[in-house]
């Protein structure tokens, strides 16, 4: 065969491989991005659930301060939400929760689920951010239809209880 | 919920991960979920009904012992894919996905939510760092991670750049509490006389601390007629008996390597279970098993042990490596049935938190979090059967 033909063939193979890699990377970025967004929606839902459970409990027994913290967490604008949620965690830690009371148990369960949701969200946001900050991904501006994934930085909302499974 | 679990090691050889997978699967089935376990095994092997064999396993030296895992290849990849497609699982739960095995293949073939449990605390950080790019592709397919010990979690955080939920190993309390002791054991235990001490594990391995127990036993035996020592675990009987002076040898009984059932019977046959380990324990599974069997536990004051024993309320702690301290603790407890009863009562409460149904509910919560993070829907406590204590 002619040497020129070899060159053409080699170029074609390189181009094809590059295209496959680009398509694969774009799919990967898209998948990680979508997953981080789903995790953010789940986290949002769990934050609302915990605040709602705390509000119910506050109306039943612990009164104004806890109720106010729950309300503020529910109504917080995005920029103030992390602080408001941390404040609610502090208020919940300050009261004595009795696992036998269904309203308390609801708050404890909601906090536990929130802790898991936060952990998963943080991991998935980290994956999405690391994929998006790769040079090739930035160069091709992959994932530009999605906002840059944001961490939700709050303290661990787990409520330590004597009856809880000892871990750590 | 439809749950697919992948175990990388063959069930023909007993091991920590295999037992964990079987107990978890049975606990989840007991809570009313559909469970299928994929594990390497020959087609004709006798397996529990929920296990799907994935073909032959080959022996591979791993972590100081020989593990039997299925190899990579077109045949096993096809089987893994087919099992995933047919199973139509809500969540896929893989164990030890970082070793080249069925678990790794399953992660690479999975589409939906994947939960991974890390058992060993691999610390070969240079290997991990070198393979970081490849590892990243694998890890980013995992939605939620579980570590069975604080040490395994530390590796996640420091070397794999991610968090993990710590959920301890469970213990099947009913299996340990329900069995009969060995005939003739534990025998009488009164003030100044009698009593049975127990030790389970490799007595030749330095970090298990057997010599500390031996010294305490040899020192205590002349002052306490009828005191006996029951030892179980792999090893040569001559190596064991050779460590003891001739006059106390007939007071030592060696059972050799025991099955799971005999292990439970052995733990039921002792007054005091002694864990003289000098280090290297990340969790202390044997302590939860001894507590489940209702034995009073005497353990060295290691972090992991202190945590399981609730700071000493559920079992007596002695300074690590101190044979004289152990001897004092043993003499005191053998003479004091009331104190033994108090420790055992607290032990029952502690071990209830490690009971498999309780641990399985916590795993279910992680499944729920993984499903939620994949499609954004939120799962009710009731739907996954998460009511009750957690």
Describe this structure as you would to a colleague:
- The complex is a heterodimer of chains A (168) and B (390).
- Chain A has one domain (3-139).
- Chain A is 74% helix and 0% strand.
- In chain A, 34% of the residues are buried.
- With 168 residues, chain A is an all-alpha fold.
- Chain A has helices at 3-62, 64-75, 78-94, 102-132, 135-139.
- Mean pLDDT of chain A is 85; it is low at 162-168.
- The longest helix of chain A is centred in the N-terminal third of the chain and has 60 residues, at 3-62.
- Chain B has 390 residues and is α/β, with parallel strands linked by helices.
- Chain B has 2 domains: 2-170 and 355-375, Glycogen Phosphorylase B (Rossmann fold), CATH 3.40.50.2000; 174-352, 3-Layer(aba) Sandwich (Rossmann fold).
- Chain B has helices at 16-30, 74-87, 102-109, 125-130, 132-139, 150-159, 173-177, 210-220, 237-241, 246-249, 260-268, 285-292, 303-308, 323-334, 337-352, 356-375, and strands at 2-6, 34-39, 51-53, 58-62, 65-69, 91-95, 114-118, 144-147, 165-166, 189-190, 193-194, 196-200, 228-232, 252-254, 272-275, 296-300, 316-318.
- In chain B, helix 12 links the parallel strand 15 (272-275) and strand 16 (296-300).
- The model of chain B has no long low-confidence stretch (mean pLDDT 82).
- Chains A and B meet through helix 1 and helix 4 of A and strand 9 and helix 16 of B.
Could you give a short description of this structure?
Chain B: InterPro entries: Glyco_trans_4-like_N, Glycosyltransferase_grp1. The complex is a heterodimer of chains A (168) and B (390). Chain A is an all-alpha fold and 168 residues long.
């Amino acid at each position: 065969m002619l040497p020129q033909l070899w060159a053409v063939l080699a170029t074609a193979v390189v181009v094809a491989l590059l295209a496959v890699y680009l398509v694969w990377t774009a799919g990967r970025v898209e998948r990680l991005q979508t997953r981080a967004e789903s995790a953010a929606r789940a986290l949002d839902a769990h934050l609302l659930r915990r605040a709602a459970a705390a509000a119910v409990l506050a109306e039943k027994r612990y009164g104004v301060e806890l109720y106010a913290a729950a309300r503020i967490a529910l109504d917080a604008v995005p920029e103030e939400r992390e602080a408001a949620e941390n404040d609610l965690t502090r208020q919940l830690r300050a009261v004595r929760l009795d696992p036998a009371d269904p309203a308390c148990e609801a708050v404890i369960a909601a906090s536990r689920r929130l802790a898991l949701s936060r952990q998963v969200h943080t991991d998935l946001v980290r994956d999405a951010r690391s994929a998006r900050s790769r040079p090739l991904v930035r160069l091709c501006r992959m994932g530009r239809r999605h906002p840059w994934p944001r961490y939700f930085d709050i303290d661990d909302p787990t409520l330590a209880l004597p009856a809880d499974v000892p871990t750590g | 919920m439809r749950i697919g679990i992948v175990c990388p090691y063959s069930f023909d050889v007993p091991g920590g991960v295999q037992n964990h997978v079987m107990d978890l699967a049975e606990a989840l089935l007991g809570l009313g979920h559909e469970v299928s376990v994929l594990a390497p095994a020959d087609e004709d092997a006798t397996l529990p009904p929920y296990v799907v064999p994935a073909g032959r396993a080959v022996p591979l030296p791993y972590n100081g012992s020989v593990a039997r895992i299925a190899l990579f290849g077109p045949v096993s990849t096809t089987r893994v894919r087919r099992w995933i497609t047919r199973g139509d699982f809500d969540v896929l739960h893989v164990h030890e996905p970082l070793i080249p095995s069925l678990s790794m293949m399953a992660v690479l073939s999975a589409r939906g939510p994947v939960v991974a449990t890390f058992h060993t605390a691999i610390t070969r950080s240079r290997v991990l760092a070198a393979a970081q790019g490849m590892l990243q592709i694998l890890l980013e397919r995992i939605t939620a991670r579980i570590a069975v010990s604080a040490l395994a979690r530390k590796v996640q955080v420091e070397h794999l750049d991610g968090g993990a939920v710590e959920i301890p190993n469970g213990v099947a309390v009913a299996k340990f509490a329900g069995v009969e002791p060995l005939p003739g054991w534990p025998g009488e235990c009164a003030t100044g006389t009698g009593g049975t001490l127990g030790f389970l594990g490799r007595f030749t391995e330095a970090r298990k601390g057997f010599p500390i127990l031996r010294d305490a036993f040899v020192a205590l035996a002349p002052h306490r007629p009828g005191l006996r020592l029951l030892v179980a675990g792999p090893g040569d009987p001559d190596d064991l008996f050779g460590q003891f002076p001739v006059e106390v040898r007939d007071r030592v009984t060696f059972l050799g390597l025991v099955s799971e059932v005999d292990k439970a019977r052995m733990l039921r046959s002792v007054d005091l279970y002694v864990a003289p380990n000098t280090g290297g324990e990340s969790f202390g599974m044997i302590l939860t098993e001894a507590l489940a069997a209702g034995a009073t536990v005497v353990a060295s004051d290691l972090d992991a042990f202190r945590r399981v024993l609730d700071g000493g309320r559920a079992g007596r702690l002695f300074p690590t490596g101190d044979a004289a301290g152990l001897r004092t603790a043993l003499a005191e407890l053998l003479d004091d049935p009331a104190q033994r009863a108090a420790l055992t009562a607290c032990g029952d409460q502690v071990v209830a938190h490690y009971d498999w149904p309780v641990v399985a509910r916590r795993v279910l919560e992680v499944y729920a979090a993984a499903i939620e993070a994949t499609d954004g829907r939120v799962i009710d406590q009731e739907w996954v059967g998460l009511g009750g204590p957690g």
